[in-house]
């Protein structure tokens, strides 16, 4: 019996060592974007001028939900994950009232050029000057990672806007992109089958942009099943509600998206594959106006709108110095791709990705 017991213990030990060895502790990155969210809404809380404008129908309810005795209290109500977790354990950039500036380098100041800059590390105004569904000739950091042996087949993207297969160039890159109203494909979980059934049963507000809750849960199910090491998630509702002049819906969507990001962070911190070696890098593709005048209209963005070049960033992860809200300094959106490449230890061509990585330490 003693010999059998020893043999059993040795077998269990070998199984444990083998399972431990299979846990890849190299860095994982989740890049997350919130379309068209202003830095003012992240840092100043509820904009009372816009609440009182014709852009808000449910003024009383919106005030009840998100107003506070100070901008700090208000912004925490709107984005509790940002201000209770990232501000404590990570880094937040872009509060221009404190001298922390984040700016786009592209001059278009709308979505496709903004996402190209985020993903490739370089503006391309000469070739990307519309939101048309043209395949991107530029190579994203997602594609660079997918070319590396240790990340091959471990990169995936999920987006609410249906232009993303073209921005990421899924055909050339080989990266699976679920965007717009695409269904999940392959060997499906029960939840993925359910999502496929119901995503078009929910209200379809915009034919080219699905509701973010579906994008989120498609991404989360894929993460659970496949353990990708590099994940891009693009939430899109905020920009479309803003274009529609629905400030109350815009703010509620921002609040909901913060909760979705919190849900994803909680999941990865409970999973041995992701726990303590996963970075969240969160930003937006462009800013927008801050008023009702035509050249600064809140519903708009683009080269003719004041302030549309101003954005923000939030970064959370194992080797990120917990400085919280940054004061002073200038960062640019094109620094995000080389930062991701540095975290993943992916070599980049300085000619195609010339910006310096952000110093996270």
Summarize this, please?
The chain is α/β, with parallel strands linked by helices. It has one domain: Alkaline Phosphatase, subunit A (3-Layer(aba) Sandwich), CATH 3.40.720. Helices cover 39% and strands 12% of the residues.
What does this structure look like?
The protein has an 8-stranded mixed beta sheet, sandwiched between helices. It has helices at residues 2-21, 39-43, 48-51, 59-66, 71-78, 80-89, 111-120, 141-147, 164-167, 170-173, 190-198, 212-226, 237-243, 247-268, 336-344; strands at 28-34, 91-93, 101-103, 155-159, 177-179, 230-235, 278-283, 313-316, 324-325, 330-332. The termini are far apart. Helices cover 39% and strands 12% of the residues. By secondary structure, it is of the alpha/beta class. It has a single domain (34-344), classed as Alkaline Phosphatase, subunit A (3-Layer(aba) Sandwich). The longest helix is centred in the last third of the chain and has 22 residues, at 247-268.
